[in-house]
Design a protein that fits this description.
This protein is 28% helix and 36% strand. With 369 residues, the protein is an alpha+beta fold. It is globular and about 70 Å long.
Length: 369
């Protein structure tokens, strides 16, 4: 979990896209070329800085998160969080998700996980720099405060630039993990609290993880100490099929991804993707839809609408797509650039989905011993 902050909150262009679309179009649907990338980037940078880069809980977990699983169950590692995000593509995210699912299902086929061991429930783990190697340990088995049906990890200050603990080690808060699962039923929650700032990060994961299929529902937030950004993820499938819907919201803006796909020999067969960006203050929405058959041919009804008006069609094949405007003419350079911004936003949304999905699996694995 070394890349926790980066995993969760890669550049959230989905939010920037929503800002730029609605700032440009107001109540009337305008052409995609009207988007203002500069304004979008400025809005995005402000959000990332306030909610993510300056989030003490995320910064702490970015370093200390690597050591949580080892502290709870050093001999058990049911989930190797497969991350193929370095390539920065939707395909990499999809392959990473499927690799993680297959690893989980392979492990579950011959194992029956249990909850966090009774002997650890209600215990607090503190960092022991003198241990070999350094790591989290229960230094006082009678220390109060930890949840009775879970564990508590003390969080420490981390330099957000160097991504290393501040010296001397400075306690800033705690992370509680509560597990009431009874496999295959999953019910796990996590809450990160920072003294003087409140709850800065929360995640609830529920669902079922059987030997051949799974459903996973994740609901969470990240906070600046006063306001929250919410996200939700519902995902299910088998080794042959995966489907999900993912939502992310901030103030009046939200983004939703809906995906269904068949997996054939570890490759994506037919599939469909719908991405909706919405301003709930009645300023409109942008919908991107793409459907592909098992030969890679794109459904000619695929495309982009703004406030219900068609602004682009996508046809052809995955390897050679044909993009035209609402009357069938090729897009102008400005429109192509705007559409590129949309694709970039969708790619980042896919990455964010993958990040939260992987983190949910990791969170489950902390209690699956």
């Amino acid at each position: 979990m070394r890349r926790l902050k980066a995993l969760w909150f890669t550049r959230l262009t989905v939010v920037a896209l929503a800002f730029s679309v609605f700032a440009a179009c107001g109540d009337d649907a305008g052409p995609p070329g009207d988007l203002d990338p500069t304004e979008a980037a400025a809005a995005l940078d402000a959000i990332v800085a306030e909610y993510f880069d300056q989030n003490d809980a995320l910064n702490s977990l970015g370093f200390f998160g690597d050591f949580l699983g080892v502290a709870i169950a050093p001999a058990v590692a049911p989930v190797n969080a497969v991350s193929a995000l370095d390539a920065g593509t939707v395909e990499a995210a999809r392959l990473g998700a499927m690799a993680s699912v297959n690893e989980w299902l392979t492990w579950r086929a011959s194992s029956t996980p249990e909850r966090i061991p009774v002997g650890l429930q209600g215990k607090t783990f503190r960092w022991n720099e003198q241990a070999t190697p350094p790591g989290y340990e229960i230094l006082d088995p009678d220390e109060p405060g930890a949840p009775a049906n879970g564990v508590r990890f003390i969080l420490y200050a981390v330099d957000p630039i160097l991504e290393q603990p501040i010296n001397p080690l400075t306690e800033i808060g705690y992370l509680d993990i509560i597990d009431t699962s009874s496999f295959p039923t999953i019910n796990i929650s996590m809450l990160a609290h920072v003294t003087g700032k409140g709850d800065l990060l929360g995640v609830d994961v529920s669902g079922t993880f059987g030997q051949t299929s799974f459903t996973l529902n994740t609901d969470g937030f990240v906070s600046n100490g006063q306001q929250q950004l919410r996200f939700g993820l519902n995902v299910g499938g088998t080794a042959q099929e995966v489907n999900f819907d993912f939502t992310f919201s901030f103030a009046t803006f939200s983004a939703k991804l809906e995906f269904d796909g068949l997996i054939v020999n570890d490759e994506l067969g037919s599939g469909s993707l719908v991405v909706t960006f919405t301003d709930t203050s009645n300023r409109g929405n942008v919908v991107f839809s793409l459907a592909v058959d098992n030969q890679g041919v794109i459904d000619p009804e695929s495309g982009v609408t703004m406030n219900g008006k068609r602004v682009a069609f996508i046809a052809g094949t995955v390897d050679d797509p044909v993009i035209t405007n609402a009357v069938g003419d090729p897009l102008t350079p400005a429109e192509l650039q705007a559409l590129g911004e949309l694709f970039h936003g969708i790619g980042d949304a896919f990455e964010l989905f993958m990040d939260i999905f992987i983190f949910s699996l990791v969170l489950i694995s902390l209690g699956a011993v």
